[in-house]
Amino acid sequence: MDDFYKEYILDHYRNPRNFGRLDRPDAAAEDLNPLCGDRIRFELKVDDEGRVTDVRFSGRGCAISQASASMLSESIVGQKLEDIARMPKEKVLENVGIGISPARLKCATLGLKVLKSAALGEIASWPEEPA
Amino acid sequence: MIATRDLRTAAIARDFPLLFQPTSRGKRLVYLDSAATSQKPQCVIDALVHYYTHDNANIHRGVYELAQRATDEFERAREKVARFVNAAEPAEIIWTRNTTEAINLVSYSWGLGNLRPGDAILTSQLEHHSNLVPWQLLAAKTGAELRFIEVDEYGVHRLDDLEAKLEGAKLVALSHVSNTLGTIAPLATIVPLAHAAGAKVLVDGAQSAPHFRVDVRDLDLDFFAASGHKMCGPTGIGFLYGKRALLEAMPPFLTGGDMIKSVEYTSTTFNELPWKFEAGTSDVAGAIGLGAAVDYLEAVGMDWVREHERRLTAYALERLATLVPRGLHIYGPQNRDQRSSVVSFNLADIHAHDVASILDTEGICVRAGHHCTMPLMEKMGWPATARASFYLYNSEEDVEALIGGLEKAAGIFKV
Ligand SMILES: Cc1ncc(COP(=O)(O)O)c(C=O)c1O
Hints:
The structure holds 2 protein chains of 2 kinds.
Chain A: H1 7-14, E1 27-33, E2 38-46, E3 52-60, H2 63-74, H3 81-85, H4 90-96, H5 105-125
Antiparallel strand pairs in A: 1-2, 2-3
Helix pairs in contact in A: 1-2, 2-4, 2-5
Chain B: H1 2-13, E1 30-31, H2 42-55, H3 65-84, E2 93-96, H4 99-114, E3 120-124, H5 133-142, E4 145-149, H6 162-166, E5 169-175, H7 187-196, E6 200-204, E7 223-227, E8 238-242, H8 244-249, E9 260-263, E10 268-270, H9 284-300, H10 302-321, E11 328-330, E12 342-347, H11 352-361, E13 364-365, E14 367-369, H12 374-380, E15 385-389, H13 396-412
Parallel strand pairs in B: 1-13, 3-4, 3-5, 5-6, 6-7
Antiparallel strand pairs in B: 2-8, 7-8, 9-10, 11-12, 12-15, 14-15
Residues 98-100, 128, 130-131, 175, 179, 204, 206-207, 227, 372 of chain B line the site of pyridoxal-5'-phosphate (PLP).
């Protein structure tokens, strides 16, 4: 756990990437971890093929939740919403490194949970494919 | 003098076996989360084992000797708690699961029958959700207005407009001690004014009953709620004190077995106090365990407990102040007499959760988050705080461990 707070985690915490809001996002979702009050919002721009073209996240919370969301935001431009909606949580756990305690698992995965619900919300709003 | 006190503390700590169980990293356990729940002395653990080994039977029912013994022990525990808070009689003590249930009992049983549109419920900005949400619901159901005593930046009650706020109030519901900031409510000032305005007073004693002597008659409280698990007792047991006249006039909260005198198919005569409010089989072992906890606290002496915590908290505040240059913010009342043994803080830009995780690696248990006081955190503009809370078994060595852990956190985060 000591080495959990690696240099790059602190860097993402203090200088989060893609932090902020988008002007008229195509998809957005927000959630909080009631245990600690951590809050994360993800906003996405999506092209006609359902690929993410831009992303911002905002919110506040611990180094683990913020760094995890920041790293996640770096890896999703160009990805299809369907793939994001299926992204396993191992992906973010890999990002933040090993040794996370069960109590902090929710912090590490909050960003992914929000991102997925943004993706799922957008997919659900698409018109049915003509048969 | 100080040395004798340290010896006494060390002897007290030895009564709590869990404190001597090292962590999985082999660290000494430094338990600084007694505001969440206290550790249990061996005598309380023994009382539970003894009850299940020798006295277990359902109470108030069996005619046989064993059932009588269980009933006697259960009622003796009630007498102990009544004496502990100086109730006029044991029948004014109702067993509940915890503080939350005791407050809900009053909200439903007293509140629904006594509040009307135009009435007001006065609480404060410091409250634990347990002493806020029930009043929000009661206000919504009855059309009463919910008002708040404001607190300043240190979490101290602002009483300048109290009399105006009390106008039309039927109930004043306040925590005796804030679990987030440690503020001790100025009840000696508030209660007489509340009564003069025609309001009843409920005090949430979850954080006071464990830490100093509470005299419900001297304070002239109408209701007082507390939890056994925060005062060296087991989980699952708490109590409500209420003045007899009020309790007599209130309808039962839960209904069923035990709370009845006689039942016909279509009607029921309710039991007398206190059993009218104790539907179903109670937590008999829990009540007996809480009785043992009260015995333990009285043997130590509640004045000793308060004095010990007051010194230790002063020591902690002094030691924590050395970290102010590294960005430590300490919250809560500046005046020691207004503060119990709770210290909330943040370290520079490090989130409280990260602070708590790093302290955990050193065997130090502190709480991090909103402490079930989300509106207070929002008002103060703190996303979260870390909270160390001290009890009779904590020592200066525990404070030193905390300081060391915070220095480590500051080092990792380079502040
Ligand atoms: C001030 C205060 N009130 C109420 C409660 C609720 O206690 P319980 O969960 O035992 O009902 C707590 C416990 O954290 C508290 O600190």
